[in-house]
Amino acid sequence: MRLVSAFALLLMAGTAHAETLTLYTSQSPEIAQQTVDAFQAKYPDIKVEWTRNGTSQLLNVLRAEIAAGDVKPDVLLVADTINLGQLKAEGRLLAYADAKVGSYEKSTYDKDMTFFGTKIISTGIAYNTQSAKPVETWGELLVEDNKGQIAVPSPLYSGAALNHLHSVIDVPGIGWEFYERLAELDIAPDGGNGPALKAVASGLAKYGIIADADVIRAKAAGSPVDLIFPKDGVSFITEPVAILSTAKQPDAAKAFVDFLLSKEGQELVAKQGNMPIDPSVAPPAGFPKLSDIKLLPLDADKAVADDKQVREKFTEIFGG
After folding, report:
1. How confident is the model at residue 299 (pLDDT cuts 50, 70, 90)?
2. How far apart are CA 120 and CA 127, in angstroms?
3. Most buried in the list 77, 173, 291, 301, measured by CB within 10 Å?
4. How many angstroms separate the CA atoms of 118 and 233, rounded?
5. How far apart, in Å, are the Cα atoms of 193 and each of 37, 127, 147?
């Protein structure tokens, strides 16, 4: 007798009996809807209910659910590996040894197969082309003329900003001194990449420390913004996906992971305006070659171990 997988049985049961896959994501609402729609088009018998917020806010909700013994999401699709690394260390992620990582660069997924990068998103310097001039390094931002004129997302809200903080604090020439100087220039990190980009595009700020795709999309749409990849390096995130160990629908969650890693999922990444991790999928227009960018590596294990004190020092610097 041929064995039928639990996931196949789920599909055979039809929508009337299909369970719901619950997703928590930090993707923007528009991008998240596109992602869910594309997945459901391929798996019409899986209903996806999704909630989006900044990565740190989502993790706060998840922590409250863990404390209450009522964890709702089956799968997380968030900005950075630091928060997922912490969940992994606590045994809260499900290892998926058969995830379709193919020949992807090993640095894009967890060696223990508990979370998987879905794209490359670097953080560079955005500037308003009508009020500011391009710079070549991070340090060139730190001048009196830019007092109160640099939009910076908060690492206490944004996963990309948290990843950036951990990536640069030990880099010579950037380090904690960069953030201390920002505070001296009356810069108050707040919110995520969206508000920071709006501040730069509207002229409220001359510069912003913002994820690449947001700026490139805005430029293509006609906003007076452009992006600099500083020669002293840029941080990057992979927007990883992970399945919770408490997932009520693990088979559907695995299908979601496989979709994001598939060529179809990677083509969606490029269509949405991000750099795919699949080298066979062409990046969207406006992106440089990865070989032309200096990427700043992140020691994820160290970041997890140091995260509490790093957040505390950041808060101390900016008086939050």
Report:
1. confident
2. 21
3. 77
4. 21
5. 24, 13, 20
Distance CA 310, CA 286 (A): 34
Distance of CA 279 to the CA centre of its chain: 19
Q: Residue 219 is encoded by which pair of tokens?
A: 């430029």
CB 24 within 8 A of CB 58: yes
Under 8 Å between Cβ of 152 and 187: yes
Looking at the whole model, is its pTM more than 0.85?
Answer: no
Read off the pLDDT band of 292 (50, 70, 90).
Answer: confident
Tokens describing residue 263: 């060529």
| pLDDT the model gives residue 80 | 78
What is the rounded distance in angstroms from the CA atom of residue 315 to the CA atom of residue 307? 12
CATH of 6-118+238-288, one of 1.20.1530.20, 1.10.150.120, 3.40.190.10, 1.10.357.10: 3.40.190.10
Q: What is the CATH number of domain 120-236+295-318?
A: 3.40.190.10
Helical pair 212-220 and 193-202, crossing angle rounded to 10 deg: 40
pLDDT of 302 > 90? The answer is no
Structure tokens at 304: 């997890």
Residue 95 structure tokens: 């290892």
Q: Each residue of 112-159: pLDDT tens digit?
A: 999 999 998 899 999 999 999 999 999 999 999 999 999 999 999 888
Q: Do 313 and 176 touch, CB atoms closer than 8 A?
A: yes
